[in-house]
Amino acid sequence: MAAVAVKFPGVAYRFYERRLQASLAENRIPHHIGVMVDGNRRWAKLAGAPTSHGHQAGADKIHEFLGWCEELGVDVVTLYMLSTDNMGRPAEEIGQLMDIISNTLDRLGESKRVRVQPVGALELLPTHLAENLCALAKATEAIEGLHVNVAVGYGGRREIVDAVKELLRKAADDGTSLEELAETLSGEDISANLYTRGQQDPDLVIRTSGEQRLSGFLMWQSAYSEFYFCEALWPDFRRVDFLRALRDYGRRQRRFGS
């Protein structure tokens, strides 16, 4: 009886997970999901481990999460891995985090299953990491599988500023005056110069760790996104948590501002 009692929770969990997945309507799976991978540092603190262990556990969870997305038919994932604000953390932590991100990128490339696109201000990153991102984007550009936007050195306000700067440069190159640009400038013009240009905006944005704020993530693109906040710290985020997020999304009536 004791052996059965030990095994039963796992059996019940798998049964619940299968029921959750079966409840998802195929036509209600989000095309594009943004994920704020939050809680690595708190996870390490609770475990009594170095901060770098939390970041590594979070990196391992990313690979697991992307596998779930592939399985369930998600087409695009944007991972908020390092913000411009986070880059002000202690140099030792940032150095370790940069190494973990670089190793994560190597693993993504070795999988031969995902197309990687850097999303952020590469000039703020260490040269080796920026070069790694660019090389990986080039090496995976022909892959037709899951499209993964890696938001490293990313800030939502900076992205919008960079988009406006690019518009101004193009106008100058074309001989368009500022007055003419001001008369014709539209939201579509801004969208066409964002880091995610050409992509559909995220349908669903997930944030872990119990925090309920945007923290500058895809500020322009998420205007009509649905949001899902999960109490689990990112390294503890389970497949069942993801399925619950998808179930919740599938039940919502999207209004797009109407």
Q: Would you mind describing this structure in some detail?
A:
This protein is an alpha/beta fold and 258 residues long. The chain has a domain at 28-155 and 202-250: Undecaprenyl pyrophosphate synthetase. It has helices spanning 2-22, 40-47, 51-72, 91-111, 127-140, 156-174, 178-184, 187-191, 239-251; strands at residues 32-36, 76-83, 114-119, 146-154, 204-207, 226-229. It has a 6-stranded parallel β-sheet, sandwiched between helices. Helix 5 (127-140) links the parallel strand 3 (114-119) and strand 4. Helix 2 packs across helix 3 and helix 4 runs parallel beside helix 5. The longest helix has 22 residues, at 51-72. The radius of gyration is 20 Å and the shape is globular. Mean pLDDT is 93; it is low at 1-6.
Portion in helices? 40-55%
The order of strands across the largest sheet is 3-4-2-1-5-6
Q: Mind describing the biggest β-sheet?
A: 6 strands, parallel
- Secondary-structure element series: HEHHEHEHEHHHEEH
**Which CATH top level class of one domain fits?**
Alpha Beta
**Total DSSP helices:** 9
Unreliable runs, pLDDT <50, ≥5 residues? Answer: 1-6
Q: How far apart are the first and last residues' alpha carbons, in Å?
A: 57 Å
Approximate strand percentage:
5-15%
CATH superfamily of one domain: Decaprenyl diphosphate synthase-like
Which term fits the overall shape? globular
- The CATH topology name of one domain reads Undecaprenyl pyrophosphate synthetase
> From the helix content, strand content and strand pairing, which structural class follows?
alpha/beta
Number of strands: 6
**Mean pLDDT score, rounded?**
93
